[in-house]
Amino acid sequence: MTKMLVISPEVCTGCRTCEVTCSLAHEAKFSPNVSRVTVYSWEEEGISVPMMCVQCEDAFCQNVCPTHAITRDSATGALLVSKAACIGCKLCVQACPFGGSAYDAASKQILKCDLCGGDPKCAKYCPSKALQYVDANKANTGRKRAYAARLKPANQGVNR
């Protein structure tokens, strides 16, 4: 069963629990600067969106890495960065169209979501459930249903 992180910005409160939980899990400190997830907020619109590596199937970051430091975990599907192999060139950061990786100058390492080994703490502790780690097929079904509901005529329901 393939799982994926699903982001629901419509329920994100902008609390940033995901950021501090991530930094605690990976760096043993509460510091959003070293989190693998970043919450972007637009105050006037009242929208917050947690952003992190989306674990692309054909990942630009992996393709441009000159030392092959980025590999895919066969159990979780996460793209992992080998600290030993990474030379800090930051090509992966530049190549990602979603801004899914970052470079931490203090530790001289690439910061990239590794799905916490299959138990993403950001999703586990998100109080609003804006981040959820779910079966990929279930996530897709949910998106289809939500989209269909927006398209349905006002007097009809969605069957299924």
Explained architecture:
With 160 residues, this protein is α+β, with helices and mostly antiparallel strands. The chain is 26% helix and 21% strand. The strands form four sheets. The protein has a two-stranded antiparallel ribbon. A two-stranded antiparallel sheet has the order 2-3. Strands 4-5 form a two-stranded antiparallel ribbon. The two termini are 23 Å apart.
Secondary structure: elements and pairs:
Layout: E1 3-7, H1 17-27, E2 38-42, E3 47-51, H2 60-64, E4 70-72, E5 79-81, H3 91-95, E6 101-104, E7 109-112, H4 121-124, E8 131-135, H5 136-151
Antiparallel strand pairs: 1-8, 2-3, 4-5, 6-7
So how many helices? Answer: 5
Q: What's the Cα radius of gyration? A: 17 Å
Distance between the termini: 23 Å
Percent helix among the residues? 25-40%
Give the overall silhouette.
Answer: globular
Strand content: 15-25%
Q: What structural class results from the helix and strand content?
A: alpha+beta
The whole-number mean of residue pLDDT values reads 92
Largest sheet: 2 strands, antiparallel
Poorly predicted runs are none
Number of E strands: 8
In order across it, which strands form the biggest sheet? 1-8
Order of helices and strands: EHEEHEEHEEHEH
